[in-house]
Design a protein that fits this description.
The complex is a heterodimer. Chain A is α/β, with parallel strands linked by helices. Chain A has a domain of about 100 residues: 2-Layer Sandwich (Nucleotidyltransferase, domain 5), CATH 3.30.420.270. Helices cover about 25% and strands about 20% of the residues of chain A. The radius of gyration of chain A is 26 Å and the shape is elongated. In chain B, strands 4-3-2-5-6 form a 5-stranded mixed sheet, covered by helices on one side. Classes of the chains: A alpha/beta, B alpha/beta. Chains A and B meet through helix 1, strand 2, strand 6, helix 3 and strand 7 of A and helix 1, strand 1 and helix 3 of B.
Chain lengths: ~150, ~210
């Protein structure tokens, strides 16, 4: 009976219909976890020092960042001690204005919880860090965090 | 004429499009969480403020010169020995602590396991670590020194916490973070923090010229 004759079949192709689903799932994961860099660095990306006793910075919206490092543009010199605020090279004298500006963006009751994160290159000098610290103290921005990468022992 | 079926849209290239997007986000993603050595600055003193007089034996002086060399209590030291030295100093407990806020006289340190030497610190809550660096000191070294000092405190707190509550201080803090309203945990965290308060002060740096 020809009706029940077995047809010869090759290997069935693997069904790839769900491949897009898998890829989309991954896609959404990365879309959600991505944080785009807000400020463009005009200094070379600081090589952070490493430390073991680091704490995670919580409440990212309450963190204002000061960068210290070597400027990309030669006209600002080649030392590792230039300060970047927002997206410009600045001097320590500009820090109070920067902090006031950051504060004005947040609600008043959040101001005491604001943290200043100092991202400095490991070859920067303590002198410039001290200048920053004194300026921060002048405007009562007392919570600071020296940005460092976590090293395991 | 044969009836034509509605032609299906070919979804074969959907995966390619999704992959393209996926790769874009893969490349731009930065997963690192911001972390750092946190520190609280002291408030600006009023103009005619006179610093309190602290006995020399209660100050642990750490000097970093512009060549990133370490001098601790007038002796040269390697970074790896700093933690031991700091722990020994903090945990000495040679005298009585600060008087309580309600006027109770200071108590001797009953949990310290140090040498109780006369010439070192009286009590962990009186022991001050003063870090003096030069303006030319490298930031990396400065952070490494701070890190070692914090490690010393961490180790002492861990030890005391194990003794009293049978878990390390890190675990206790984690537990408290997960359960902020737990008064019992809060009291424990504060108890340990009060027993070994972190008193690290930054002295005005010396200038190079």
């Amino acid at each position: 009976m020809s009706k029940f004759k077995k047809k010869k079949k090759g290997m069935p192709a693997v069904n790839t219909a769900s491949l897009p689903d898998i890829v989309f799932m991954l896609l959404f994961f990365f879309m959600v976890t991505t944080t785009m860099r807000e400020t463009e660095l005009v200094i070379d990306s600081p090589r952070l020092p490493s430390a073991t006793e680091v704490k995670k910075l919580e409440h990212k919206s309450l963190v204002s960042t000061i960068y210290v490092g070597k400027p990309k543009d030669e006209k600002y010199g080649t030392s590792y001690n230039r300060i970047q605020l927002n997206d410009k090279i600045a001097t320590p004298e500009d820090i109070p204005a920067f902090i006031y500006n950051e504060r004005s963006k947040r609600a008043e009751e959040e101001v005491p919880y604001m943290t200043t994160s100092i991202k400095a290159d490991r070859e920067s000098n303590v002198g410039v860090i001290t200048d920053i610290r004194l300026k921060l103290r002048d405007v009562n921005a007392l919570k600071i965090s020296y940005s460092a990468s976590k090293s395991s022992e | 004429m044969a009836r034509r079926e509605n032609p299906e849209i070919n979804a074969g290239s959907m995966a390619d499009i999704a992959f393209l997007l996926l790769i874009f986000f893969l490349v731009t993603t930065t997963m690192n969480v911001d972390s750092g050595v946190s520190k609280k600055l002291s408030e600006k003193p009023p103009p005619n403020y006179e610093p309190p007089i602290i006995k020399k034996k209660n100050i642990f002086e750490v000097n970093i010169n512009r060549k990133n060399e370490l001098m601790v209590e007038d002796e040269r030291m390697q970074l790896k020995d700093l933690k031991e030295a700091a722990m020994k100093f903090i945990d000495n407990g040679g005298g009585v602590g600060k008087p309580g806020e309600d006027g109770t006289p200071g108590q001797p340190c009953d949990y310290c396991q140090g040498e109780k030497s006369e010439s070192s610190s009286d009590h962990p809550n009186k022991a001050v670590i003063s870090v003096q660096s030069d303006r030319g000191t490298e930031y990396g070294t400065y952070i490494a020194v701070q890190n070692e000092l914090l490690k010393a405190y961490r180790e002492l707190r861990d030890r005391l916490c194990r003794q009293r509550y049978n878990m390390s201080f890190t675990e206790l803090e984690e537990a408290y973070k997960d359960d902020k309203n737990n008064e019992d945990l809060k009291k424990k965290v504060e108890d340990i923090k009060k027993a070994y308060p972190q008193i690290i002060s930054d002295a005005e740096p010396t200038s190079a010229q």
